[in-house]
Amino acid sequence: MSGASEGNDEMAEESGNRDGKVVGLDGDKEEAEGEEMKTEGGEDEDGLLDLTGNQLVSLVRIPLSPTLTELDLTRNRLSSIEPVLGELPNLQKLSLRQNLLTDASDLAKYPGLYGLRELVLHDNQLKHIPPLDKFEKLELLDVSFNQLKTLAGIEKVSPALKELYAAKNKIQAIEGLSQLSNLLTLELGSNHLRVMENMEGLTSLQNLWLGKNKIREVNLCGLKGLLRISMMSNRLTRMTGFEGCEVLQELYLSHNGISRMEHLCNLRSLQILDLANNRLSEIEDVESLTKLEDFWFNDNQLPSLDGIGDKLKGARLTLTTIYLERNPVASDPDYIGKLRREFPNIQQIDSKIVR
């Protein structure tokens, strides 16, 4: 019931296959009573009640046991936070994903919810982050796919928070995060961000997802422990700013305007490097990457494979996947054969499985 990463939501969105369906707003008594019969006794032995996709407009007729620890209300038609939710003192995980909420402020009215560890409000119509200062155990908050213009309210969230998902909103600035010293994942993809800032306090951060914004320059605010960075579909033209990320394992920079590979030689922990859809004509500065497994370089301007074994010599035995399709080099009739000879453990070349 946890939040989804930028990549998964964006892929689903682009494919037109997002998990959900359009339903009417009218519900009658018979339907509500039917739901009561359907869900009675539905709690499993682990304290989970899954009411996904029941088209519920209210919880009044739904028997909710006070022993519940996890309640999934995904894909219903709930438009308010009902008092019955405050009568679940053992609840740790609550998902209201894909409902009709325009305001979730009433969550703060119910002390019975203050013990929540995961709160998913993904894909509603929220314009503000609800007041969560009393939710001192909250570890995951998902407010992606809403109508937020700012992160106002996040400054009151407990330092216990480990995962924050706020993708696909209209957020214009990174702010209010200074107290989140235990945050491991920050997802702000598909917003209106232009500047990377105010992340100095995120000293535990490992995963930073900022794809589909309007960022022109990388500023990691001194963060050294990042394992994964995504800045796909921004406005980058250079690769400066990653030099200090010596433990970085995955770097996604596709769909930018980068014209030169640089400042990569010290990223010796890198396992995945995605530079697809840029303006690159040379592979360089990656000779020392001895852990590289996936190299995505499709849709660039690489003219030939001359010297590719030397350019990727550190990864000669570790490289298992390489994408070079839609480069001029891909027209070489021995293209696949040359790559297989250079990289003996290669398993996939473009979309072709070769082992």
From TrEMBL:
Repeat is among the record's keywords: yes
Annotated stretches, region: Disordered: 1-48
Leader sequence residues: none
Any one GO BP annotation for this protein: protein localization to nucleus
UniProt keyword terms in alphabetical order: Leucine-rich repeat, Repeat
Segments passing through the bilayer: none
GO cellular component, one term: nucleus
Organism domain of life: Eukaryota
Protein name, UniProt field: Protein phosphatase 1 regulatory subunit 7
Species annotation: Chara braunii
